[in-house]
Amino acid sequence: MCHPPVQFRHFIEMAVRPAVTIQIVPNRVGAHPALTGAAFVILDFPSPDPSLVYLATATDSLWLEKPEEYQRYTLIYSQEQASSALSPDDSVHYLAAMVDQLKR
């Protein structure tokens, strides 16, 4: 198991890559639409491969492939990104502050 500061530093390093965007939804936001279910990852692939959603639960994992399922999770993600998440720059600063805090 990785130590959180090591993971956070890795996220900070990855954030400079052009294909990587990190946005944090801080705890202070409270309840938000993305908390209504399991953690999810949206996977987009070049055409003709379909985009899909991966859900991880405590006991199982699911792959959602139907366009309406993908659209639902894309909407949830877009709402979070626009209304609750920190900007990419602020998210990196947030992670750096967490690393400093956890070092103490």
Explain what you see.
By secondary structure, the chain is an alpha+beta fold. It has a domain at 37-104. 42% of the residues lie in helices and 13% in strands. It contains 3 helices and 3 strands; from the N terminus they run αβββαα. It has helices at 4-14, 67-83, 88-103, and strands at residues 39-43, 52-56, 61-64. The protein is globular.
Q: End-to-end distance, in Å? A: 20 Å
Number of helices: 3
How would you spell out the order of helices and strands? Answer: HEEEHH
Largest beta-sheet details: 3 strands, antiparallel
Number of strands: 3
Q: Largest beta sheet: what is the strand line-up?
A: 1-2-3
- List the quaternary state of the chains: single chain
Strand content: 5-15%
Average pLDDT number: 85
**Helical proportion, percent range:** 40-55%
What structural class results from the helix and strand content?
alpha+beta
Overall body shape: globular
Unreliable runs? none
Report Rg.
15 Å
Outline the fold blueprint.
Layout (H helix, E strand, L loop, with lengths): L3 H11 L24 E5 L8 E5 L4 E4 L2 H17 L4 H16 L1
Protein name: Scr1 family TA system antitoxin-like transcriptional regulator
Pfam families: DUF5753 (PF19054)
Q: Quick summary of this structure?
A:
This protein has helices at residues 4-14, 67-83, 88-103, and strands at 39-43, 52-56, 61-64. The protein is an alpha+beta fold and 104 residues long.
